[in-house]
Design goal:
Elements (H helix, E strand, L loop, with lengths): L2 H7 L1 H24 L3 H10 L3 E2 L4 E2 L3 E3 L9 E3 L4 E2 L4 E3 L4 E3 L4 E2 L4 E2 L2 E2 L15 E2 L2 E3 L4 E2 L4 E2 L4 E2 L4 E2 L4 E2 L7 E4 L4 E5 L2
């Protein structure tokens, strides 16, 4: 961490960053080498205060920004599946209600930050964060990106490779960049 970063964050947040960065690296090393089984990975996350429901399966998922909300900001309902190489930003809360599926290589972002406070674009794109919510029965196809503050509606499907920039209504198939309604489901 640079001196400028410590000055902007302050000593307490810098120490928190260092501790959670260590935990994050430890988790990822354990995941890669010692926690290859979803059940063990799930238990490890629960110890770190994540709330994970019955029969949820968490494959080789990568988390970042643990120094903000951390694993305590992760809520996974029952019967959920989070696929390999999914990336989840824990700057703000990420909530998966029951029976949600995030396919392989989905990216879930909860914040925007262009850089230091004196970055020339800071006044146009101020730092912000918002939780991301996946309602019951929703599915996100492989390699999709979900942006901060987006809610994926109940029983909705985000097609593979899509970028969800706004809320997806219930019972809707969306796709594309940015994701647009393709059709209603049911």
């Amino acid at each position: 961490m640079s001196i400028k970063a410590v000055q902007e964050l302050g000593l307490k947040k810098s120490i928190r960053f260092a501790i959670y960065s260590f935990l994050q690296v430890f988790y990822h090393q354990l995941t890669a080498h010692l926690l290859p089984f979803p059940l063990i990975r799930k238990l490890f996350l629960i110890v770190l205060k994540a709330r994970i429901g019955k029969d949820a399966i968490i494959m080789d998922v990568k988390f970042f920004n643990w120094h903000h909300r951390g694993p305590g900001g992760l809520v996974v309902g029952k019967d959920c599946f989070i696929g390999d190489e999914v990336i989840i930003d824990l700057y703000d809360e990420v909530i998966l209600e029951d029976q949600v599926t995030l396919a392989q290589r989905v990216t879930v972002l909860t914040h925007l930050n262009v850089g230091y406070n004196d970055h020339p674009l800071q006044r146009f794109f101020p730092k912000r964060s918002k939780p991301v919510i996946f309602k019951t029965g929703s599915v996100v196809g492989a390699a999709s990106i979900i942006l901060p503050g987006v809610t994926i509606g109940q029983n909705s499907f985000v097609a593979a490779g899509s970028v969800a920039t706004k809320n997806v209504p219930a019972n809707t198939l969306v796709g594309g960049v940015p994701a647009r309604t393709i059709r209603k489901i049911g």
